[in-house]
Amino acid sequence: MKRTTLILLIVLNIVVLLGQLWPEGAPPFARWVNILFLAGTLGYFQQEVRRVPSGRK
After folding, report:
1. Three-class SS state of 13
2. 3-class DSSP state of 28
3. Rounded Cα gap, residues 40 and 28, in angstroms
4. Where are the domains of the chain?
5. Tens-digit pLDDT string for the chain (57 aa)
6. Is the pTM of this model over 0.90?
């Protein structure tokens, strides 16, 4: 699950980066991709921060 989430975030990151580098070629749904990427990374980072390290309990 963690690997799938990271792959999805990397793909969204690539789309966001391409939209920044080449704005004229951005698809009409680029705004939603940006929002999904930001929300996804925020959720992922929150989950990682809350996770208890395996050595501590």
Report:
1. helix
2. coil
3. 20
4. 14-19+27-49
5. 788 988 888 888 888 888 888 888 877 888 888 888 889 899 988 888 888 776 655
6. no
